[in-house]
Amino acid sequence: MSLSTNDLKNGMTLDLPDGLFQVVEFQHVKPGKGGAFVRTKLRNSRSGAVLERTFRAGEKVEQAVVDKREMQYLYSEGTDLVFMDNETYDQLHVSPTSLGNATSYLLPSSNIVLQMYKDEIIGVDLPTAVDLVVTETEPGLQGDRSSAGQKPATVETGLQVQVPLFVNQGDKIRVDTRSGEYVTRVT
User: Fold this and answer.
1) Is 104 helix (H, G, I), strand (E, B) or coil?
2) Nearest-CA neighbor of 127 among 116, 112, 115, 108?
3) Cα–Cα distance between 105 and 156 in angstroms, integer?
4) Which ranges constitute the DSSP H helices of 50-100?
5) pLDDT of residue 181 exceeding 70
6) What strands, in cross-sheet order, belong to the sheet with 182-186?
7) Given CA atoms 44, 48, 54, 56 in this order, what sign does their dihedral have?
8) Residues with Cβ < 8 Å from 15, sequence gap 6 or more?
9) 98-105, Cβ contacts within 8 angstroms, sequence gap of 24 or more
10) Are 73 and 113 spatial neighbours (Cβ–Cβ below 8 Å)?
């Protein structure tokens, strides 16, 4: 679908000759001399790299129609992860490389939204935080308080997280999926 650069919005995905890009920021500029133009910041949907690009005002670009599907993670099979579409119940085998670091937050039966473009996964929408069980960490000492410091802990998905000293093995903690940081202990 073709659209004018005057109609760009944040979050829109464009199919440019260089690849698939998501509009992070845009600004219409009308200098006193010369023609108007649109200055944009674009994020590559595959690599995550951000670049700045300038278009003439009114220039036509291709908009990519990204399909967002809610899927449930079922299990891993060999090197692939198996997801089930929540609407059609179709199963989809996905390579962990196409999900990036999202695999560090996936537990069986968890729901995520896969962003697909022409049957290719280009992104993942995770919940902002997930609850994970600590499988390995040094034992806490008597008198440790929340402001006393941090120690490394490994959670059930294999992710390494810095946690307060009072967190013990077997505790359930909430981890922010955007930063990978400890949020709180869950009871």
Assistant:
1) helix
2) 112
3) 9
4) none
5) yes
6) 160-164, 150-155, 129-137, 172-176, 182-186
7) positive
8) 62, 63, 64
9) 99/124, 100/48, 100/124, 101/180, 102/126, 102/177, 103/157, 104/157, 104/158, 104/159, 104/180, 105/130, 105/132, 105/157, 105/159, 105/175, 105/177
10) no
**Residue 59 pLDDT > 80, yes or no?**
yes
165 sits in the region (left: phi over 0; alpha: psi -120 to 50; else beta) called alpha
52, β-bridge pairs: 41
> Nearest 10 degrees: CA dihedral of 140, 145, 149, 154?
40
Q: Residue 59: what are its φ and ψ, rounded to 5°? A: -65, 145
Q: How many residues does the chain have?
A: 187
Give the other-Cβ count within 10 Å of 34's Cβ.
8
pTM above 0.90, yes or no: no
Ordered strands of the 50-56 beta sheet: 13-16, 19-29, 37-44, 50-56
Q: In this predicted model, what pLDDT tens digit does every residue of 110-152 receive, in sequence order?
A: 899 998 888 888 888 888 999 999 999 988 665 555 556 888 9
Share of the chain above pLDDT 70, in %: 95
